[in-house]
Design a protein that fits this description.
With about 70 residues, this protein is of the alpha+beta class. Helix content is about 55%, strand content about 10%. It is built from 3 helices and 2 strands; from the N terminus they run H-H-H-E-E.
Length: about 70
Amino acid sequence: MNQEEELYFKVLSKQGREAWTIFKNPMYRGALEIAQNLYKDKAHFVYELLHNADNQGATHVSMRTRSRNKLNLM
């Protein structure tokens, strides 16, 4: 990752962590349960990434797993 991509990833990660805190509010617990039930397949996010890449015209995707719980996209 170059510096610009690394900064972009850090900003997205921070925004994701902040957005996640909304589900601590009992009022939004139902929305979390719906989302969890929609995506029971643990690899669903990979399919979504591939679909998004295809929509953007990608012609090549490379993936590498680093550990059981992490996935690196190259």
